Amino acid sequence: MRVVLTVGRYFRRHFGSRVRKIPISLQGFTCPNIDGSVAKGGCIYCENESFSPSLIKISKASPVKMNFSLTHNPLLPKQLEQLKEQFAWHSNFHNEKFGIGKYLVYFQSYTNTYAPFDTLKALYDCALGLPNVVGLSIGTRIDCVGDELLDLLGSYVKLGKEIWLEYGIQSVYNKTLEITNRGHGIEGAQELFSKTRQHGIKVCAHIIYGLPGEDESMMLHTLDSVIAWGIDGIKIHPMYVIAGTRLAQMFRAGEYTPIKLETFSDLIVQSLKKIPPSVVVQRISAGAHDETLLAPKWCFDKNIQMRYIRDKLREEGIEY
Ligand code: SF4
Fold first, then answer.
1. Residue 46 in contact with ligand 1 by CB distance below 6 A
2. Ligand 1 contact, 31 CB (< 6 A)
3. How many angstroms separate the Cα of 231 from the Cα of each of 138, 156, 189, 204, 234?
4. What CA–CA distance (Å, rounded) separates 50 from 48?
5. DSSP alpha helix (H) spans, the chain
6. What are phi and psi of 35, to 5 degrees?
7. Cβ(240)–Cβ(287) below 8 Å
8. Measured from the CB, is residue 181 less than 6 Å from ligand 1?
9. For a pocket test of ligand 1, which of 111, 138, 144, 170 has the largest count of ligand atoms closer than 8 A to its C-beta?
10. Closest CA to 296 of 270, 320, 246, 262
């Protein structure tokens, strides 16, 4: 039986104990694909609160935007307060309930490198100074990471911190990125992965199976491509439709057919056979457990989803 290097196994191997990623969502953060800098309306599937609804409740984050023309970010004190508050809540919970005592601060919602440099540095410095924090994981886009930021993150690596950049790639096909209103093409992604890793920063690629206009060979080609570029981790999501998005309109108009669970599971089996054993497989499922989920319905219950996928994997001699 081949045992996949999940994030839990990786942390235990690397740190000698369990480590919990603490998701953080801060007021004022947005995305250049939402605020009109590169496009308007965001990716056609984006309804960002669906990624982290509990965080929004905890932080009471509102859509107040930072003004990037200012050198002084007036929201920074509030953001630092929210960071500490959310970290304290989650770390206490995981410590009391599961006895976990080490944490990676995960800047998750929107684009977490899209802010004035001083703001990013203040937030990352603060996060790394919180009790028992061993590193950061930062979700972003390939058009929002520059040399100054890589140098900063690389300086944390030199201090012994574990730093991950989680790049939303989704597909390597520019046609798909255009259909999904991604706001950037795939050019430069390979070089960015390489440059990121040269700084000692770990790269996690996010890809999606079931994007509009893609067949299975295209999905697997995206996987093959990011593996060839060089990655340390990967997250594979099924595409699901959330109410209020452009994808929901396409779905209701019969212009989009969601991926079936059987197809997704078969793709995951094929994918795990391709992914090198040293790459951390951070996620192979996704969904929304509330009424905002329109389709596919199998994305409603993550446990049922994972049970089905795990059974398929075991039939192929793979333990996830
Ligand atoms: S890049 Fe992320 S946050 Fe920005 S619009 Fe797309 S899904 Fe939403």
1. yes
2. yes
3. 15, 19, 12, 6, 7
4. 5
5. 7-15, 53-59, 76-98, 117-128, 147-158, 174-179, 189-198, 216-229, 246-252, 261-274, 302-315
6. -85, 5
7. yes
8. no
9. 111
10. 262
Nearest CA to ligand 1 atom 6: 43
Q: How is residue 259 written in tokens?
A: 């991926």
237-268 pLDDT, tens digit per residue, is: 999 999 999 999 999 999 999 999 999 999 99
This prediction has a pTM of 0.93
- Residue whose CA is at the smallest distance from ligand 1 atom 5: 42
Rounded CA-CA distance 264/24 in Å is 29
DSSP calls for 152-174? HHHHHHHTT-EEEEEEEEE-S-H
CB atoms within 10 A of CB 71: 8
Placement of tokens 């929107």 in the chain: 110
**156-173 tens-digit pLDDT:** 999 999 999 999 999 999
